[in-house]
Amino acid sequence: MRSASVGVGIGAEAVRAVEPSGSEIVWAQEVAVTQERPLPQALRELLATVPARYWPRPSVAVAVGPTHAQLRRIRGLPQVRDRRLLASIVQQSVPRYFLQNGTPVLTTGLAVGGPGDPWAGAVEQPVVQAAAEACRAQGLRLLSVTPTAAVLAHAFGDGVVEWRDRDVRLLVTTDAAGLRECRRVPAGVAGEERGMLAAPVSSLRALADADAGVRFADAYAAARDGGRSALALRPGR
What we know:
3-stranded antiparallel sheet
């Protein structure tokens, strides 16, 4: 699969985009999501600012934060090796495996990360649709839509990563074997000591301020993953 030229991170309060090139980030932009500027509009405004220095236009990989996406170990699946069959079972049994708030979701493929049951993700369908329509409006190719937790290792490396999305806080643990743990806790609950958390990669640390380096980690991780994760949705395929 072709690597993404641009990565987009979708959060509850903002959408962000970055364009990495080699070991540098050559462009970054952020647009707030508000009541007056809902997510579909914010995405359209964000992608309208993508630099017009390519033809054909760049491809886009999207990471969706835990307000609109879930990532869970899936227990109780049949003991078969056909992952497409297993992914189909998960999609047909969404209420059994994922929390629901009345919004339809699309489920990802399955991925094995270390010992234990496989991982699968779910992304709210309106969010996937908003990303696809915003890309289409700007002549961009949407490569993938992936839960943010599934790609954060590209922005932080192995260890424990803390990711906040308004009222939700994730603690994601990765190592050489892949995703080991994804724990969802309320944002107000005391977390691990900062010294135990993985630091962003040098490309992110080079941004204008330290806070920006963390905020843009979702977009950067999406670009670096480029839809290669087994936990990526690939609209149109």
